[in-house]
Amino acid sequence: MSRRLLHTAWGIHGLGVHLPDRRVSNEDIADQYGVEPAWIERMTGVTHRRYAEPSQSTSDLALAAAEHALADARLSPADVDVILLATSTPDQLAVATACRVQHRLGAERAWATDVGGACAGFLNALRIARDVLTASYPEGRALVIGAETFSRFQNPQDRSTGVLFADGAGAVVVGPASAGQGILCSVQGTDGALADIVGIRAGGSAQPASARTLAEGGHYLHMNGKAVAAYFHDIFPRIVRDLTRTSGLPLEQIDLVVPHQANPRMLRTLGSGLGISAEQLVITADVFGNTGAASIPMALHTARAQGRLTSQKTVLHAAVGAGMSWAGTVQRWL
Length: 334
Prior knowledge:
Layout: H1 2-6, E1 9-18, E2 22-25, H2 26-29, H3 37-44, E3 48-51, H4 58-73, E4 82-86, H5 97-105, E5 111-115, H6 121-136, E6 142-149, H7 159-162, E7 167-177, E8 182-190, E9 198-200, H8 211-215, E10 221-223, H9 225-247, E11 256-257, H10 264-274, H11 285-288, H12 295-305, E12 314-321, E13 325-332
Parallel strand pairs: 4-5, 4-6, 11-12
Antiparallel strand pairs: 1-7, 2-3, 6-7, 8-13, 9-10, 12-13
Helix pairs in contact: 4-5
C-alpha cells in the first residue's frame, strides 16, 4: 500500500470560474486616482477588471466557482474529500472561509481549510492537495479554489493598488492521474525579510483594529510597487529555471506558461526576456486585473475556452505572493 501511495499521480479533472457581473473600466476609476485612463493601461496593461457587489463576499465567489468545477468534472459535492481555499481576503478572521464553502456546497465529508501565500496561494494549495490526497485519499478528490475580493481592501487614494487588483474566483478538481500525467513537479520558496512590502497591515494580533489603525488606513491593501517589481523581476526567472530543471523539460517543450496574473505589462516583458513566446504565454489580467490567488485557475479556464489548453499540453505555472513567497508547478494536462 505504501508503494502505491508513493507513486500515485494527480491531475486536474475539472475547471470552474466565477466573475462578478460588475465590469470596471479604466475610465470608471481614472479620476478617482488622479490619472488618465491611458496612463493605467500604459503602466499596467490592464483595461478592465471586475468588482464584487456589496452583498457578495469571498465565499460567494468561491462557492460559485467550486460548483462550476464540480459540474465540469461530472462530480457531486459528496465526491469531495478535501477543500482548500487560497485567499488573502477571507470573509473574516479566525474562521476559514473554506469552512463556509464546505457547508454551503453540501460537501459534508470533506475536510476544509484555507491556505495562505497571497498570489502564490493557489499553487501552494495545489501542492498541498496533491500531498494530502497521496497520504490519506488514494482514490480521492480535492477542490482547490482561489478567490479574492480585493476591491473591499483598496485604498481609494492609492493608485499603486487601486488600478491593478480586482475580484474573482477560480476552482479546480484534483483527482487520480496516470503516471507521467497531471502534476509533474513543484517548487516553492520564501523570503520573510520582505514581508512588509505588500499586504494588509492592520486587523491581526500585531495591529488589532482601533480608531488609530482605521485613521491610518491600515486595513487597506498597501504595496511598495518598486520593491515588489524588483523582487518579481529577480524571482520569476528563477522559478522558470528551477521548474525546467526539475521537470527535465526545456522551455521549448513547454506548451503554455500560465503565471499568476500580476501586472500584464511586466509579465510580457519578463516573458520575452526569458524566451517565452507570445503563443506560450497566457495573459488575462488585461481584462480581469490581478485577482491574486484566483488568477491562475481563471487563466487556465480562459486558455481552455480559447482552444489553447488541450489534453497532453505541458503547462508551467509561476506565482509570486506577499510574504514574500513564491511557487511554481509543471503539469501535463489530462
